[in-house]
Amino acid sequence: MSEKVTIKDLDQVVIRFSGDSGDGMQLAGNIFSTVSATVGNSISTFPDYPADIRAPQGSLTGVSGFQVHIGAEQIFTPGDLCDVLVAMNAAALKTQYRFAKPGATIIIDTDAFGEKDLAKAEFKTADYLGEMGIDPDRVIACPMTTMVKDCLTDSGMDNKSILKCRNMFALGLVCWLYDRDISVAFAFLHEKFARKPAIADANERVIQAGYDYGHNTHSSAANVYRIETKHKQPGRYMDITGNKATAYGFIAAAEKAGLKLYLGSYPITPATDVLHELSKHKSLGVTTVQCEDEIAGCCSAIGASFAGALGVTSTSGPGLCLKSEAMNLAVILELPLVVLDVQRGGPATGLPTKSEQTDLLQALFGRNGESPMPVIAACSPTDCFYAAYEAARMALEHTTPVVLLTDAYVANGSGAFKLPDLNAMPDICPPYVPEELKGKWTPYMRSENGARYWAVPGREGFEHIIAGIEKDAQTGVISTDPENHQLMTDLRRQKVERIPVPDLQVMGDADDAELLIVGFGGTYGHLHAAMDTMRAEGHKVAMAHFRHINPLPANTAEVLRKYPHVVVAEQNCGQLAAWLRMNVDGFSPEQYNEVKGQPFKVANLVEDFTRRFF
Fold it and tell me: Which residues does 377 contact at the CB level (< 8 Å), separation at least 6?
């Protein structure tokens, strides 16, 4: 008689898929995230892949990982350590086990732990579990490769194509362990491989085989776990990555403003997916151009803006350096432009697939002359949509270039995204030159908010020339007059300073905290989780997170001076802390800085803050 399977409810679980770069770990993780998001679970993901284009198969340097945290209530991070580790080969087990909790369930493909596999992974003995101190009772050891071959023996596929389906077997097994509806995974596959239905069918069969394996063998001590959403909000949801959300935010802003969207870009990790996504949406009035270099990408976007479109250019840190002269051109032309910088590890080529926050001061100051630009930083994968929309609105309404900072962590990560109602989004009203100024207008006349009037070419009576040399504020002709240059410098600066941004919000023990945690951008979830943990331990802790960095919120000084202790935590050597010191007289915060190319660990934050401040 078979053992009865029990279903246990959990509040949250962290799962990490790992294997060779060609093993499809990102796809398996993405599908599991999608399946979870469709039932209303809160999700947070962390794709962790190597910079190697394709490292030797089975090598330690070629391991790719995808971690997903799903919860019954809102969660903020992909989790420090995983409850389930899927290791598709010996190298994955060797390198990824350090990300597993003590007592975590380990799922392995025993067919990928042969003598040669163990040698490549630098195991010294055939007892790889004992060598790593892993309890065999915690291991679901399955001959995945053999079972996938048996499953697809009549498919007509070649051996190489069959082996590419192994990731779906692992996915099916994990779906069984966590009571996921695999029909959603089937729908995902048939949409992804719509032009290759045989591939979709094969992967569907393998997912079902993995699911059946878990059911028939009662893996994991005959327990199935369910994460039931506790507070369901009605609406349409999708699992969305930060880069895709950014692309959708730009599309929504252009639609709201009644403009065409133009992206001029040069491929660079980890920003290229924005170019890929926008290129799919020509039907929505989107034009994308893959330019010959970063400078051309930015300059072409400026040209599109001059012609009356929403001009956007996308890059990462090294490309932001190259765009700086063109960005300066947009400053002096006073044209709308959004510069997306998906930050990665640096300097130079640095860590192309890893995440840092090391471009902040470059975004603020990395140009010649006095060239102020608004700077916005997205806080999460789903917030990338709203940050992109806000950056575009700000650029269009204030005729200024705007820098939008994301980073590899939020850009490649994903979350459960509730599709917004475009009608409820803020209006976008560019300052077009009024018709009544016809015959009186000059190129640098300004609206009430200080923005230069935008005269789109083609309007009779508003023909004009603008260029990169200083112009007279009244006439728009070339001027080297010292007083005029001072005036124009002040006007450009004041225009940015006057842009209204929301007040800085304080979360947690806002009234009586002993410690205020301060951050910006993609560290939001980890800092929030650290605050929640410390408050649960009885400490008085609050948190303030900057989304708008230039201009700063009007209440910034008031908030930062309110608390006995303030720590600024960021993934650089203190760039936000330096910016806040410049803008808040007498402010001297404590700092927590890491430059590791990896997200913060919540446990490390809690230990450090508790030791130093309580």
Answer: 360, 387, 404, 405, 406, 520, 521, 522, 546, 547, 549
With contact defined as beta carbons under 8 Å apart, do 405 and 359 qualify?
Answer: yes
Q: Which amino acid is at 522?
A: G
Token pair for residue 234?
Answer: 């009605």
> Collapsing DSSP states into helix, strand and coil, what is residue 321?
helix
Tell me: the pLDDT tens digits for 339-379? 999 999 999 999 999 999 999 999 999 999 999 999 999 99
Angle between helix axes 197-217 and 144-151 (nearest 10 degrees) is: 130
| Whether the Cβ atoms of residue 589 and residue 569 lie closer than 8 Å to each other | no
Helix axes 294-306, 317-333, angle to 10 degrees: 30
Closest CA to 442 of 471, 484, 485, 401: 471
pTM for the full predicted model: 0.89
Question: Which bin fits 308, alpha (ψ -120 to 50), beta or left (φ > 0)?
Answer: left
Contacts of 68 (CB under 8 A, 6+ apart): 14, 15, 16, 29, 32, 33, 36, 43, 44, 45, 46, 78
Following CA atoms 446, 447, 448, 449 in sequence, which dihedral angle do they give, to the nearest 10 degrees? -80
Q: Give the C-alpha distances (Å, rounded to integers) separating 339 from 61, 320, 373.
A: 33, 8, 10
At 459 the three-state DSSP class reads: coil
